[in-house]
Amino acid sequence: MKAVVYQGPRSVEVRDVPEPKIEETTDAIVKITTTNICGSDLHMYEGRTNVEEGKILGHENMGVVTAVGPGVTRVKEGDRVSIPFNIACGSCRNCERGWTSFCLRANPIEGMDGAAYGYANMGPYDGGQAEYLRVPWADFNLLDLPPGDEYENDFTMLSDIFPTGWHGTELAGMREGDRVAVFGAGPVGLLAAHSAVIRGASEVYVVDKERDRLAMAEKIGTIPIDLSEADPVEQIMDRTGGTGADCGVEAVGYQAHDHTGEEHPELVLDNLVKVVRSTGGIGVVGVYLPEDPGAVNEQAKQGRIAWDYGSFFMKGQHMGTGQAPVKRYNRQLRDLIVAGKANPSFLVSHELSLEQAAEGYEKFDRRDDGWTKVLLRP
Ligand code: NAD
Ligand code: ZN
User: Fold this and answer.
1) Is the pLDDT at 368 greater than 90, yes or no?
2) Which of 97, 233, 260, 344 counts the highest number of beta carbons within 10 A?
3) Does the structure show a pLDDT above 90 at 298?
4) Transmembrane residues, as ranges (predicted)?
């Protein structure tokens, strides 16, 4: 079958690879109908990780089940399914509490809790930017979708970024009527903003510098804040009479940069501490990395950043972090889509064939005008 493999920094290629097979009795094989390129893939694409050459990429996957192992009883051949990016066993201490993103069994790498498809350090699993994908613990992990091809571009956001955006608002402790500040208008930030609107925010501010992304933020009923025009904290403070936001979401990650393009991994956390009121919450879904002496990025090399913890403490704020436990939210988010109350497909800018993956990666990575979210159709 054809699959997108990592070749080295800024290089991916579509190659012929062996089709996946049932390896454990609880596995299923899914024929992929849509698989997305994610901002998280860019950490690998830009050569910031130790991902091995030849790794099949892709953790935002959906499709139709073509085979199940003898231990799979709920899911059947022919079922249309969304595949959460987290691979979870369903029965460890963390899974039992709904923290599938920190499954204690799925990742054999010492010290790493939580596994994913096609990702550096997240276990030996192949990704789904391919024609077929092996899904471990299929009964537990797969979310069933209505048959057919309706809502394909909405449902494809259920494997990662819609639940991740929602999780950002949850980690921030968002309540109805809150004023919410979202930093980052990438796919994750935009879906955090969409989530905040659905959850009844009074006002949502979305900070970025990419004009096309800010325009999308405006289209979904939120207030765009262009950081290249003026300090985003001052802009939000001015518009709120100096009171700021009740809570905030970090949807940028360690590759945060200032308006000149220089990397400043502490910048967004500092801005959130300033803009969120005292006792308010901050949900961090943008990725920060532990110490890795081989990394190319300073934050990832040291595993630490000098952010303003003192002000965070003095303001009595709270913070939640980490990979999103997709299963905790995807059922309800699917139902909101079907009920017409959520439409995360507003993000989709490009629908490409698998063969066009290299172009998709290149343009999405450069944040070329209009390249907000790329879907691949194997
Ligand atoms: P993205 O890189 O397309 O979006 C990031 C956006 O942040 C860009 O539009 C960029 O212009 C903007 N930005 C940069 N510096 C900024 C600053 N100082 N202030 C405000 N905005 C700034 O990626 P994405 O797909 O939206 O993902 C965002 C982050 O979320 C990444 O770190 C990704 O790895 C992470 N992520 C986390 C999870 C999770 O489960 N926690 C899941 C998916 C993605
Ligand atoms: Zn993703």
Assistant:
1) no
2) 344
3) no
4) none
